[in-house]
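One chain shown below:
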Amino acid sequence: MYALWAFLAATLAVLNEVLYKRGFEWWDYWWLFIPISVLISYSLFRTVTGGPTLLLSIVAFSLSTLTLRSLASQFLLGEPLARGNLVALLALGTAVLAGHLWK
């Protein structure tokens, strides 16, 4: 269940970033950004308290965020994807797999 909370927090964080990059200034749309930020905080709380370990919870959130951020950059914003992002995705994916298999 912690992975779903991590994915929700990552989705909301990337949504905030995409909105900001599309021209939604936070001071003009504070009524939109503040509730999303509160939901991110709650989702992270549920991720950390529901995960098997703190480290695995943080890695799950990082993997979700980096994956969604890479997809949003490539397909929504039209920005090129750096090779370093692909290496980071592979490293984080390996860390999640190792965390589940190492138990």
